[in-house]
Amino acid sequence: MKQISLSYGSGGKLTYEFITQYILKYFSNPLLEELLDSAVIKKDLFSTDRIAFTIDGYTINPIFFAGGDIGKLSICGTINDLVAVGAEPKLIACSLIIQEGLEFEVIEKVLSSIRNVCETENVKIVTGDTKVVERTACDKIFITTSGIGIIKDNVKLGYDRIKPEDKIIVTGNIAEHGFAILLSRGSYGFEYDIKSDCASLYPLMKKIFDSEYAVELKFLRDATRGGIAAVLNEIVKQNKNVGIELIEENIPVSDEVKSISDILGIDPLYVANEGKMVIITSDSSAEKIVEILTSHPLGKNSKIIGKVTDTYKGKVVMKTLYGAYRIIDMPTAEQLPRIC
Amino acid sequence: MKQISLSYGSGGKLTYEFITQYILKYFSNPLLEELLDSAVIKKDLFSTDRIAFTIDGYTINPIFFAGGDIGKLSICGTINDLVAVGAEPKLIACSLIIQEGLEFEVIEKVLSSIRNVCETENVKIVTGDTKVVERTACDKIFITTSGIGIIKDNVKLGYDRIKPEDKIIVTGNIAEHGFAILLSRGSYGFEYDIKSDCASLYPLMKKIFDSEYAVELKFLRDATRGGIAAVLNEIVKQNKNVGIELIEENIPVSDEVKSISDILGIDPLYVANEGKMVIITSDSSAEKIVEILTSHPLGKNSKIIGKVTDTYKGKVVMKTLYGAYRIIDMPTAEQLPRIC
């Protein structure tokens, strides 16, 4: 099987071959085909006053998993980071660091997966870079994607907009990505059927951005590493005037995730998602927003999971199934390295 | 010595600590301090009609070398990619992949180096990401930087603008970065004093962009991996209507590089630079541009090294010191992996 060698990262003949025969094969578009040091973008592409700019490195292990792969993950993750500031994702820059010896078959599978998401989501890869490093210097492939999006004029988000009585929504069942990756790594002696929720949230969130309730949105965050516990704790650290109260029975968790988290003793609140948005919105708009979300396949299990309070300032507490209150702390240790 | 652990990449408490105590310590600015999934940029920052967008991964080994380090390199490299399309560099997104166990002292040295370049060059890190991976999965630290710049209205560049009789300029002595890295890796039994030329080329190129000769520029490229041989070959591959003729005696090479390339048998045309721009400009403007370049410390050894021809279409040839013509091919194999 044809394997990649260090020469493909040399800047010479094989780099040129890699770009023209592999990269352009998958991501052909006029901006990318220019093959310049930077993509040149006309400003009139940006029809609104604000632009979103993000970057994320993806080092997930294994690179193929139930529900996705590192290629799909890298594009969806960057799209979701743009969506989380109210943007429509537009352009992607994609940088690959590849381990010498990785089969081209694997590389093409990843590139093809990237292409599929880009096509479905209507984003374009306009610039990129490829490095090949020795076998001991990297594990298979790392992908870093940077994204640019245009922020809808009617969406104004910020930690400072979050006020007591605002509601907290999560757009579906939590913890599926983290458990899918964890289970893919070892043999646990039980049957399971969990897939990563890896998905672009733009089609779902667009329905809210385009609705009359867009102006009611206070804050959005994609609940990845550290799960919804990390996201909610970061919110109360950034806005110390408020606390957060969750209602355990309202938190959407599939039966499968419930039983696995019981067996393994891992709290799903702390487990990574790759296709779930945490939404903070005004009390009055929350139910309407859930109605819109649940009408879309990506949001069908959306729930109001709690509210912002003026008590417990700087803390996240959860009313448990038994009616007791438990503090949900910022996760402290790494539950699972290389989750994304 | 305090070392980084996987938990710093968990998305939890230590990630938050890393961001607030390390990242914000070095790169504090209002956009970054928002700590959102994406930076939110007002469009009026972009005062011109075109925007440049680029990405590059840096995997250099060793991470500290004579004349620079991976931090300086990652910012200068991204700046130079923006400058190469005629842009003023503005915003940087910075993604770190760090090997578990790397000392914080090393990390801080790299961050501090990034900060120094950003301050001098007036670019801002507005968003970022940090992953920590196991010891076996990465070698020390990889940095991927994405950049946004604004393209000067009077600069129009493109392969199709290159015409016979245009002149080719290089902004100084070549091959210093590559040799500095090569020599840093082994013991060669001779004394040398070569430093990487790693530098931001914006202050130098700004003098041309701001001059009446900006409109005469046809094409720019930062001559990194593969050296000026790779850059020039890529040009004649993209514009097959022209050839390139170099004059060996005009190519600026320091005596030090000359003697080392003699000893090692490596052609400096193929060796990487990290602070040299290849400029293609109209015949009539070339000497004026060299005059401006040589008045700046970064360009003091700038030279016209050859011209565009309507013969040798698709090829780069060089008139040697002995008057013979030699074909300068695209580099084929990797001379030195992890050069940038």
Summarize this entry quickly.
The structure is a homodimer of 340-residue chains. With 340 residues, the first copy, chain A, is an alpha+beta fold.
Description:
The structure is a homodimer of 340-residue chains. The first copy, chain A, is an alpha+beta fold. The first copy, chain A, folds into 2 domains: 6-151, PurM-like, N-terminal domain (60s Ribosomal Protein L30, Chain: A); 159-327, Phosphoribosyl-aminoimidazole Synthetase, Chain A, domain 2, CATH 3.90.650. In chain A, 30% of the residues lie in helices and 25% in strands. Chain A is built from 9 helices and 14 strands. Chain A has helices at 13-27, 30-33, 70-83, 104-121, 176-185, 202-209, 227-238, 255-264, 283-294, and strands spanning 39-42, 50-58, 64-65, 68-69, 87-99, 124-133, 141-151, 167-170, 217-222, 243-247, 277-281, 303-309, 316-319, 325-327. A 7-stranded mixed beta sheet of chain A has the order 9-11-8-12-10-13-14. A 4-stranded mixed beta sheet of chain A has the order 2-7-5-6. In chain A, helix 1 runs parallel beside helix 4 (104-121) and helix 3 runs parallel beside helix 4 (104-121). The longest helix of chain A is centred in the first third of the chain and has 18 residues, at 104-121. The model of chain A has no long low-confidence stretch (mean pLDDT 94). Chains A and B meet through helix 1, strand 1, strand 2, helix 3 and strand 5 of A and helix 1, strand 1, strand 2, helix 3 and strand 5 of B.
